[in-house]
Amino acid sequence: MPASVSASLPPAPSAVVQGGELLSGRYESRAGDAIRVGEVDWSGLDAAVKRSPFWRWTHHKRWQYVGIGSPELFVGLAVVDLGWCTTAFAYVFDRLLQRVVADWDALGLPGLCGAVSSRPLAGSQAWFRSPGARVSVRHRSNDLITVRLRAGTFHLRANLDLRDAPPVLVAVGEPLGGLAHCTHKTSALRVTGELEVDGVSWSLAHASACLDSSNGLLARDTAWRWASAHRPGLGFNLQQGYFGNHENALWLDGDLIPLGAATFTFDPIRPMSTWHVATDDGLLDLVFQPQGARCADQQALIASSRYIQPVGLFSGTVRRTPNGAPVAVEQLLGVTEDHHSVW
Predict the structure, then answer these.
(1) CATH code of 227's domain
(2) Residue 48: in which H helix or E strand, if any?
(3) Distance separating alpha carbons of residues 129 and 86, to the nearest angstrom
(4) Which domain range does residue 50 map to?
(5) Can you give the pTM of this predicted structure?
(6) CB 261 within 8 A of CB 279
(7) Staple 6 to which of 73, 222, 255, 331, CB 3.0 to 4.6 Å?
């Protein structure tokens, strides 16, 4: 058996700012670790103190994303705290019908309609409410994340199990045009629960989930490409854009392996055509075939967002080391994303 590669990543610190400086780097956190990032707090960051309270308020972005995939469906859900407003969305992609069968989103006042806490996993909570809709993503003391949504005939009850989960990636760094960013990514969490759309129910007993808990002082104009896919024993997260290669990682048979810079080759005009994603270290080389997508193009007086998140299948190879034997990836359910926000 090869030696565990995850030992190359240091354990996550209890805080992401020390002595006024950002503790930039990639770290790992395992279930039961005594050391976890308890709270992402930018108040002690020297570079942030030099900015006005208004700047910090308008540039502080927090979000909690949940992706749940099963043989029958894919669910994407998020609560996003932009400082000056809060928004949430959720959708269901039916893999048999190959189309989105539920799609909900809403916008509200910060604190009144929703919020995302500064605690990334342990003690975390994100919530949103609007007329006829309620969303919550909360950590429980037994290391379960409960996900609840009621929006019309769209109901979701899911429990995500952090116990015995693969290592969590904790990435900290300075984003393009911003001051600081911290993100926690998980892979292939066990799921229990059920989903109902228009009176049709699905069990989530055979599903796997991933979490993206992010918190940063970001540029007003922020863009990225993203890819994420997970099943037991295999998963990856890739980002090209505002956060460089900080959050690029491969999960393979329980090991967390850092990846190099990612490239996304696709046609932005025809995003439902084939994508090619790869990393410059040779550890990941995959083709993505979209089967459907959720998209949104929103314009407001002070903000705009252009977003498409195709759902589909990845195939290709991954490796533990540049000279290591290739591991075949076949029909791995996941998503890509092309996103540009002025927020």
Answers:
(1) 2.40.370.10
(2) helix 46-49
(3) 10
(4) 7-342
(5) 0.95
(6) yes
(7) 255
